Amino acid sequence: MKATIKHIAAFSIAEELGIETGDVLLEINGMPVIDIMDYFYYRDDEELTLTIEKQDGEIWDLDIEKEIDEDIGLEFTNPIIDCAKSCSNKCIFCFIDQMPEGMRETLYFKDDDSRLSFMMGNFVTLTNMSDELFARLIHYKMSPINISVHVIDPSRRKMMLGNREAGKIKERLLALKEAGLTMNGQVVLLPEINDGKYLDETIDFLASLYPEMQSMAVVPVGMTKFRENLPRLKAVNKAKAREIITQIGAWQEKLLERIGARFVYAADEFFKRAEWNIPAANYYDDYIQIENGVGLIRKFEDAAMVAIENNSCPLLDDLPIVATSTDAADMMYRIQAAMEAKCGRSCFEVVPILNDYFGHTITVTGLITAGDLIAQLRKKASGRRVLIAENMRNSDGLFLDDLKLEDVKRELAAEIDLVAADGAAFVSTVWRNL
Ligand code: SF4
Question: Which atom of ligand 1 is nearest to the CA of 111?
Answer without folding.
Answer: 5
